[in-house]
Design a protein that fits this description.
The complex is a heterodimer of chains A (326) and B (249). Chain A has 326 residues and is mainly alpha-helical. Chain A is 77% helix and 2% strand. Chain A has 14 helices and four strands. In chain A, β2 (148-149) and β3 (152-153) form a beta hairpin. Chain B has helices at 40-47, 70-75, 93-100, 109-114, 117-137, 152-164, 182-197, 209-215, 233-238, 240-247; strands spanning 2-11, 14-24, 29-33, 55-60, 63-64, 78-80, 170-174, 201-205, 218-223, 226-231. Chain B is globular. Chain B is of the alpha/beta class and 249 residues long. Chain B is built from ten helices and ten strands. Helix content of chain B is 40%, strand content 24%. Chain B has two domains: 1-77 and 168-249, P-loop containing nucleotide triphosphate hydrolases (Rossmann fold, 3-Layer(aba) Sandwich), CATH 3.40.50; 88-165, no CATH class. The longest helix of chain B has 21 residues, at 117-137. The chains are: A mainly alpha (326), B alpha/beta (249). Chain A binds chain B through residues 174-175, 177-178, 181-186, 188-189, 191-193, 195-204, 210-211, 214, 256, and chain B through 48, 50, 69-71, 73-75, 79-80, 82, 86-91, 95, 98-103, 105, 107-109, 112-115, 119, 122-123, 126, 162, 166.
Chain lengths: 326, 249
């Protein structure tokens, strides 16, 4: 129960931080970046369910993100569908795709699973590029409409910021519920010992496919949000590089923790922006920082922050004791 | 309760088990013993659905369960433990046992995400059941610890608690005394008796002869993949073939 109260307080703090952030950064460009942070957080949360909890790697998550974006984009820009309906249709379609490929792919383990998901990601990327008649090919798809609610159009970065973060915060809450439930325990059990999980009656192959599908559906929703906030999409945003970036966000943030993906997404999205001062050397500093974090914070940022705060606390406590004695 | 018929298992050219048959009666404690390499663990792996056999059949309550997966056998309330304990690291002691209640709970992905009242109620009952199982083996004071921080002996107890959470008809213990000191082994003997008294049939593979002779109602002896003898502890102790197999001719 105490743990529940604790996590509610944490959640409230994060939510209010998100709510108030625009007051501090009301500059045009930064607002746009913060919309990206929201979308990336959503994607990292999705990947964390699969990788952090169930322990199944995916190097093709950018494909689900891209499918969501393209299905949404084509359905609205080309066929005039309502953006909300497009978001739901895309999520359903991507869910079906993930469910269908999940059964054969998730029989594989470790490196082989990584290769298979990588292959899937590359195939989808090629399809985006080559089906020029539908997707517009490498030059992209433009004219995607914004979301609207009976006349209220989400046409500014600020409006989209609140839309994206509302979805992201709700998803964080739901995924936190999930991982602390019967299903979440079963997922973590699979991660630790598949054979013992099976002996306990966990239908491992089905549960893996279910969580893979859920993860893909959330990524698709992120893709739709992306398409309708940016109004322009091109294949370059959904390539292998982005799959790896998502993976990095989850690992750097902290595998298998509720807020890890948030920290990872914030860091990896804001870092390149804040390294502009290093000009051409920014990528070196970026790489160096990531190496340092993985070396000195093996549990990710979340674990690192925890260690730092408890160290500061014990230091503070001993100072107090010293002062009292002196 | 459990009957195996003509179980044979070959790994390439090696015959690990050859035509092994025996049965476990309801409510008894059955021991499976034999020198190293006799095929005891292979036999358990086949019965529990972890390995498949080359030939032979397994019956649970006269139902043919040959070749069923471990998760299907769990639904039929057969459970096992592992020689090198397989705990769920990253989960607390209590959460480990809560996974054991999996087959007795139903909430799916959606109701768990939304935390529906039905789900919360089920969660409470899972927690209570798991706590009862920890009390049953006597490690309820460790409930909040992380599983990987447990000493080996306590880990073994946790694995048994987790298996009991399934509300099994039969529990297979694969070398439960391995790695335990004499005090822990005595405690284990009492616990196994308590499990049987609670109405659960027990089958165990074990090297600790004192424990086996002490608690088993009947014993099967394997040697080099063949069944050498079967009988009460006294009969086995007096069996010349068994003595020869253990001492080496």
């Amino acid at each position: 129960m105490v743990r529940d109260v604790n996590s509610l307080v944490k959640y409230a703090i994060f939510s209010s931080a998100v709510l108030l952030a625009p007051l501090l950064f009301s500059g045009g460009y930064l607002m746009n970046v913060l919309v990206f942070v929201g979308i990336n957080t959503l994607l990292a949360v999705a990947l964390n369910l699969l990788l952090g909890y169930a322990g199944q790697i995916s190097l093709g998550h950018a494909a689900f993100f891209g499918l969501g974006a393209y299905i949404s984009g084509v359905a609205t820009a080309t066929y005039g569908m309502n953006p909300w309906a497009a978001l739901l249709s895309a999520a359903a379609a991507v869910g079906l795709v993930a469910f269908a490929i999940g059964f054969p792919i998730l029989k594989l383990k470790g490196h082989y699973l990584a290769m298979a998901t990588l292959g899937f990601g590359i195939i989808v990327y090629i399809v985006f590029n080559e089906t020029v008649d539908i997707t517009g090919g490498p030059s992209g798809l433009s004219g995607i409409p914004n979301f609207d609610i009976s006349g209220f159009v989400f046409d500014s970065d600020l409006k989209n910021y609140y839309l994206v973060w509302a979805v992201t915060l709700v998803t964080i809450l739901l995924s936190a519920n999930l991982v602390n439930s019967r299903i979440g325990r079963a997922l973590r059990a699979i991660n630790s010992s598949e054979v013992a999980a099976r002996v306990m009656g966990v239908n491992v192959s089905l549960l893996k496919v279910q969580i893979f599908t859920l993860s893909a559906v959330i990524s698709s929703v992120a893709g739709s949000l992306y398409a309708h906030t940016m109004t322009f999409i091109s294949p370059a945003s959904f390539g292998f590089n982005f799959s790896v970036e998502l993976l990095t966000m989850v690992v750097i943030g902290g595998l298998g923790s509720v807020y890890g993906p948030l920290f990872g997404a914030v860091l990896l999205t804001l870092l390149p922006e804040s390294l502009r001062a290093f000009q051409d050397y920014d990528i070196i500093v970026y790489g160096l920082l990531l190496v340092l974090i993985t070396m000195y914070m093996p549990g990710g940022l979340v674990r690192g922050i925890h260690v730092v705060t408890s160290f500061a606390r014990s230091k503070f406590a001993s100072e107090v004791v010293k002062n009292a004695q002196g | 309760m459990l009957r195996v018929e003509g179980i044979t298992r070959k790994f390439g050219g090696v015959t690990a088990l050859s035509d092994v048959s025996f049965s476990v009666a309801k409510g008894e404690i059955k021991g499976v013993i034999g020198p190293n390499g006799a095929g005891k663990t292979t036999l358990f792996n086949i019965i529990s659905g972890v390995y498949s056999q080359t030939a032979g059949k397994v019956f649970l309550n006269e139902d043919d369960v040959t070749g069923l997966s471990p998760e299907k056998l769990a639904l039929r309330r057969m459970v096992r433990t592992f020689q090198n304990i397989e705990l769920f690291n990253g989960l607390s002691v209590l959460e480990n046992v809560m996974v054991g209640v999996h087959t007795r709970s139903r909430s799916g992905v959606l109701s768990c995400s939304l935390r529906l009242p039905r789900n919360l109620k089920e969660e409470r009952s899972i927690r209570e059941t798991a706590m009862d199982c920890l009390k049953f083996v006597g490690i309820e004071d460790l409930a909040g610890m992380s599983a990987e921080s447990l000493p080996f002996g306590k880990g073994r107890m946790l694995e048994i608690a987790r298996a009991m959470a399934l509300d099994p008809l039969i529990i297979l213990l694969d070398e439960p005394a391995a790695g335990l000191n004499s005090r822990e082994t005595a405690e284990l003997g009492r616990l196994i008796g308590k499990i049987r008294d609670s109405g659960v049939t027990v089958a165990l593979v074990e090297h600790d002869m004192e424990l086996v002779m002490d608690i088993c109602d009947s014993i099967v002896v394997l040697n080099l993949g063949n069944k050498l003898a079967e009988g009460t502890p006294r009969e086995i102790q007096e069996n010349q073939e068994v003595i020869a197999a253990y001492l080496g001719e």
